[in-house]
Amino acid sequence: MSNQHTIAVRCKGVTKTYGSGDTQVHALSGIDLDVYAGEHMMLVGPSGSGKTTLISIIAGVLDRDHGECSVFDHDFNAMGHNEKTRFRGQNIGFVFQLFNLIPTLTAAENVAVPLLINGVKQSKALQKAREMLHRVGLGNRTFSLPEELSGGQQQRVAIARAIVHDPRLIVCDEPTSALDHETGHKIMEILRTIATDNGKVLIVVTHDARIFEFADRIAEMDDGRITLITDPHHYVLDKKKK
Amino acid sequence: MNFIAIKMLIGNRAKYFGIILGLTFASLLITQQSSIFLGLMTRTYGFLTDTSLPDIWVMDPKVQYVDDIKPLKETESIRVRSVEGVEWAVPLYKGLLKARLPNGTFQACNVIGLDDESLIGGPPVMSQGRLSNLRGSDAIIVDSVGARGKLATVSPDGKRVPLTIGDTMELNDHRAVVVGICEVQRTFQSQPVVYTTFSRATIFAPRERKLMSFVLVKAKPGQDHKVLCQRIQQATGLAAYTKDEFRALTVKYYMKYTGIPINFGITVVLGFIVGIAIAGQTFHNFTLDNIRYFGTLKAMGASDGTLIRMILLQASVVGSIGYGVGVGIASFLGLVSGNTELAFQLPWQLLLFSAIAVMVICAASAVVSMRKVIKLEPAIVFKT
Q1: What are the two backbone dihedrals, phi and then psi, of residue B30, each rounded to the nearest 5 degrees?
Q2: Residue B251: CB partners within 8 Å, gap ≥ 6?
Q3: Chain B: residues touching A (Cβ < 8 Å)
Q4: Which residues of A touch B8 (CB under 8 A)?
C-alpha cells in the first residue's frame, strides 16, 4: 500500500479550457487531487471527462489555465521551458496507449532513449536498456524492431523505457486498451512490481475495468471534475449497486 | 541522440532514398550545367590560354572579344615596339579561312599566322612534328581534334582517315602541307585550328590593305603591365589589354550579347527548384511522418536544441550523400565526355558553389521541419 504521509502530486482548483467563444470546451473545471508517494492511482471515467488533460498537466506536457499543480513540490508553471523539459526528462516516465516506440529503433535502443536524453553515454545506456528488458521478460528480444513484437511485448518495451531512467512519477495513458485481457493483466503486474518501488508514483488513465484491482485508489472523473475518490474494492461495489 | 537521428532517417528507406535522389538530381543538374557553361566560357578565350607567352595584347580599339578581328596595319607592330617598357612586340594574324579538303568539301578553319622569325604565339603542345617545321615551304600545323574530325578525309568505304604529316590541302586556293599536329584548347565554334607563319597567312588570306590582327607584347622585367598598356594606348591610339583583361572582355561580350548565360542559368535554377521541390518536400514529409516520435522525445525530456540538432544532422547526412553522388555523376560524365565536343570545366570553385546550393536546399528543408518540431506541443503524445 502507499505511503500516506508524503504528497507527491498535488492539484488544487486546476482548470483547463480549450478553444474560445462558441467553440469553448471546459476540459477541467476545478480539479482537487493529491497523490501520495508510492501510490498507484487510477483516473477513470468516460471519454471526454478530462482524464487525459489532467494527466497531461500533471506530466508537464500541457499548461493549466488556473489553479495549482505541483509534482514533488515543483510547479511546472513556475518553470521556464527548458527547465520544465529537463524536469520531465529526469523525473517522469511515460507509457502510451499506442506505445509510441520509434519503429526504426530496436527494443534496446527504444528503451535507451530516456537515458540518452539525460546525457548517458550510448554504450552505457544500451547496457542498462538490455538489463531493463531482461527485467520485463524481454531479454531475448533486445535486437527486435517494434514491428517484430506482439502488442504485449511492445507495451513491455514501453514500460522498460518509462522506468529505465528511474523516474519518480510514471504516467500511463490507457496502457492496456490495445491488449487482450491476459496480456493486460501481465502488463499491470509488471507495472505494479517494477514501477511503484522506492516510493515511485504511478498514475494510470484507463477505461479498462478489468485492471481496477491493481490500483491503490481510483479517482473517477466526469465532465472535467473528480466525482469520486475511493479504493478499488468500494469502487467496484459502488458501481454494482448503481 | 545522433545515432537515433540517423536510424530514424535511414530506417524509412523510401523517404531516405527519395530525399537523396532529389538532392542528387539537384546537385547533378547544378554541377553539370554549370560545368558545361564554364566549359563554353573557357572555350571563348581558349586561344588566349594557348598563347601564353605575351603579357599584353594590342588591337584595334573597337575589338570586343578575341574572335572580333579588326585588322591593323603591319607597321603598328613597329610603333608598339618603340614604346618604352616593351621587351618585344610581334605581329599575329588570326582569321577564318576556307580549307578545301582532298574530297572536295570545304571547311572553315581558324588560321593563326605567327611572327616569321620568332614563331611566338605557337601552339602550347606539339604532338607530332616541331614548331620550327613551319619554316618549310607551304607549311601548316593542324590541331589534333581538327585533324581527326572536320579535316579528316572520308575513304570510299566510309572510314574517316585523319589528316597526318605530309598530307596536303588547299587554304583559300593555296597549297598547304601539314608539317605537324598540335594540341590546343577547343574553340567556341569548334573549328579546326591551323598554324602557319604570318607572311604565309597573309598569302592564304584574301588580299586586304590591313591584315595584322594583334600585336603580341612582352613587357620588360619589372614593368607594370597595366601601366605599359596605358603607355601603348597613349603612344599608338590602339587598345592594349593584359591577358586577364582581354579574357574578361571576351567573357563579358559572350555574357552580354549571347543567350548562353540565361539558358544555362535557367537550367541551374531549375535544378535548384527541383532540389527544393523533391528533397525539401520529402524531408518535410519525413518529419511529419515522425512528428509523433518527435513529440514523444519532447515529452520524455528532449530539448528543442536536441531535436534541432537531430534534424540538422539528418539534413547534413542526406545533403552530403546527395551532393557527393550528384557531383560524382557529373564528374564521371565530364570525364567520359573529355574528348568530345562537349565543353566541361569543373574547378573547385564550382564544387563549392554546388555544395553551397545543396546546403541551401537542405537548410531550407530543415528550417521548415525545425519550425514544425519547435512548435509541436508534447501533449500530442496522449492523442490517439
Answers
A1: -65, -45
A2: B41, B44, B45
A3: 1, 3-4, 7-8, 10-12, 292-293, 296-304, 306, 377-379, 381-384
A4: 102, 104-105
Statement: residue B103 has pLDDT above 80: no
CATH number of the domain to which A212 belongs: 3.40.50.300
B281-310 tens-digit pLDDT: 888 888 888 888 888 999 999 998 999 999
Whether the pLDDT of residue A96 is over 80: the answer is: yes
Could you tell me what percent of chain A has a pLDDT over 90? 44
Could you tell me if residue A11 is inside a domain?
no
pLDDT of B379: 79
Closest-CA residue to A173 (of A64, A67, A58): A58
Q: Is A164 on the interface with B (CB under 8 A)?
A: no
All residues of chain B having their beta carbon less than 8 Å from the beta carbon of residue A117 are 1, 297, 300-302, 306
Q: Which of B12, B300, B382 sits opposite A89 (nearest CB)?
A: B300
ipTM: 0.89
Give every CB contact of residue A127 below 8 A, 6+ residues apart in sequence: none
The verdict on residue A160 lying in a domain is: yes
- Domain hosting residue A163, numbered range: 38-60+79-241
- Does one domain contain both B206 and B283? no
Q: Are residues B225 and B81 in the same domain?
A: yes
Helix axes B348-375, B13-44, angle to 10 degrees: 150
Total count of domains within chain B: 2
Number of domains in chain A: 1
Q: What is the pLDDT of residue A2?
A: 45
Between A86, A104, A116, which is nearest B1 by CB? Answer: A116
Q: Are B11 and A105 inside 8 Å of each other by CB? A: yes
Closest CA to B46 of B32, B27, B66: B66
Assess whether B349 and B263 both reside in one domain.
yes
| Spatial strand order in the sheet of A217-222 | A92-95, A169-173, A201-206, A40-44, A217-222, A225-230
Range of the domain at B333: 2-43+259-382
Q: Domain ends where: B205, B237, B269? A: B237
Out of B193-197, B276-280, B361-365, least confident range: B276-280
Contact between chains at B377 and A62 (C-beta distance less than 8 A): yes
The answer, yes or no, to whether residue B340 has pLDDT greater than 80, is no
Pick from A52-61, A67-76, B370-379: least confident: B370-379
